[in-house]
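REQUEST ID: PR-0412
SUBMITTED BY: lab tech R.K.
PRIORITY: routine
TASK: structure prediction, single protein chain
INPUT:
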Amino acid sequence: MTTIGRSDLEVSGLCLGTNVFGWTADEPTSFALLDAFLDSGGSMVDTSDSYMAAAEGNSGGESETIIGNWLADRDTRDRVVVATKVGKLPGRTGLARENIVAAAEDSLRRLRTDRIDLYYAHADDPDTPQEEYLAAFDELVRAGKVRAIAASNFDADRLRSALKISGRDGLARFDAVQPHYNLMERDYESDHALLVETENLSCFPYFGLAKGFLTGKYRPGGGDVDSGVTSGRMAAARAEGARSYLDARGERVLGVLDEVSAAHDVPVASVSLAWLAAQPTVAAPIASARTLDQLRAILPSMDLKLAPDELTALSDASAR
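STATUS: complete
OUTPUT:
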């Protein structure tokens, strides 16, 4: 278990992403995924009030609603660290105080709980003074409705500025960050890692499997892959994003992943996540699953410890 930043929240080595809930995973399937994750030692789920507003027929909040129903049905609230986000729900974008406070109440209602464990600013809001939104988050923390706060998709300068303001004004400070980071996307290491380490923050990378590429299912000359995405536009975008990694570097990474996977007799996806979990400042990578088979492919990452030479081989293969 790992402690999030300076908070008292402890989490498992894998965070279950739930952006597929209410989209490519219906409620019964989502319940089964959550049950299996918890039974396997998982303890943290990541959602947002905007999941999955982009899907046809959805308006946002579907993922939170399913999680809330599961927490109530299974009586598991005290066994799970729930992270959600504010700022990207259509019609409720940005980090103005009124928006944060209202959005938090809506998330609490959908999650059927009295507190959000980790509350993210889903993205920075350059149109709202940082003092304003940090004071709003602080208000929620002092009211006991939020236990810790975090920043997703912040550049390093704005993250640094927010931390400085929190310290200066005695406000709740960010305890975690959620950046785009995986074996194929490593800008975080040069842009944020030192600041995150210095400020004792925890990193929860999203797209830990590079839109499915790091599961090993996208290969040179391979045919179409079933992404489970029903929208033609969204399916095409996801496949295009994954296939964009199929260059010489990507093939090199897949080759090393295959070797390490065979050596440990675990799925490629778990090796990819284990490399990420082993990186400095990373508390737990975020990965989602829409089927139990997909979940089984990532669960071994929680206990998989790669040898130093394996970590180096993967890092070298993915270097630009």
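NOTES: The domain at 2-211+266-304 is CATH 3.20.20.100 (TIM Barrel).
REVIEWED BY: pending
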